[in-house]
Write a structure and sequence with these properties.
Length: 259
């Protein structure tokens, strides 16, 4: 299994964060949760802080810990999938590792504001933070699990010159490409063949004719029937019923391509 390049992980994490940050309902939910927690005052803050200070404190805590946990867990889960670890295991690893910097941030903040011992506070907070990280990770993934259903009909895309490399007996109705070492396996409705090239070069040459799904898979748009989740992992369903995996770093571009 090939690894995901660090710059790809960082770029995709930032891109996903930007998409999330532009959603008004996300901010309404996040700030609403912080406001409600601030009013109830858990962990002794109800008696320790005045209402306005307590609410401001929890709004700050909820917002900063969410973003720190989200960025770390997404990047770690993406890296794990690059090593061939699929969902939901990759999500669990991301949540577990994210709980460490989130706990450190909270303990450091408490030490600065309340003069609490860092290590003692961190050890007390870690179990709670870990549970919350796992819960938020599962909830975020559940929200993302929305079937797009049937892929919309599209105006036929002009055939790219790359299709000239297909043998005549296979026709030109390219369905998918699969990376195999220094070759790609091209599959049409009439059969398959190996072509010496990289999947990246082939995807670039084919342009809007198809979409990259994974470091090892590319599929023609016309061959896609639906986008859905199977056992917590996203897949693209082809017209023939076959399912292909969608890598985490390609999810956003695949969803956009199939809208």
């Amino acid at each position: 299994m090939g690894k995901v390049a660090n710059d790809t992980v960082v770029a995709e994490t930032i891109a996903e964060a930007r998409v999330l940050a532009r959603r008004g309902r996300f901010w309404a939910g996040l700030l609403g949760a912080g406001f409600v927690i601030g009013l109830t005052g858990p962990f002794g803050t109800y008696d320790a802080l005045p209402t306005l200070v307590r609410t401001a404190y929890w709004l700050f805590i909820v917002t900063t810990t969410f973003w720190l946990g989200y960025l770390v867990s997404f990047a770690v889960a993406t890296t794990a999938e690059g090593y061939g670890i699929g969902a939901p295991t990759s999500l669990g690893i991301g949540a577990a590792i994210a709980s460490l910097p989130v706990t450190a941030w909270l303990a450091g903040f408490h030490m600065a504001i309340f003069a609490t011992p860092f290590l003692t506070d961190a050890l007390e907070l870690l179990p709670y933070v870990a549970v919350i990280c796992f819960a938020v990770s599962a909830l975020s993934e559940a929200v993302a699990i929305r079937e797009i259903g049937e892929a919309p009909s599209r105006t036929p895309t002009p055939e790219p010159a790359w299709l000239d490399q297909l043998p005549d007996h296979l026709g030109r109705d390219l369905i998918l490409l699969h990376a195999e070492d220094h070759y790609v396996r091209a599959e049409t409705e009439l059969g398959q063949t190996l072509i010496r090239t990289t999947l990246q070069d082939a995807a670039n040459d084919l342009g809007e004719y198809g979409v990259r799904l994974h470091r090892s898979w590319w599929v023609a748009r016309r061959a896609v029937q639906a986008y859905r989740y199977r056992n917590g992992a996203p897949v693209v369903v082809l017209q023939c019923g076959r399912e292909l995996p969608v890598g985490r770093t390609y999810r956003r571009s695949v969803k956009e391509a199939l809208r």
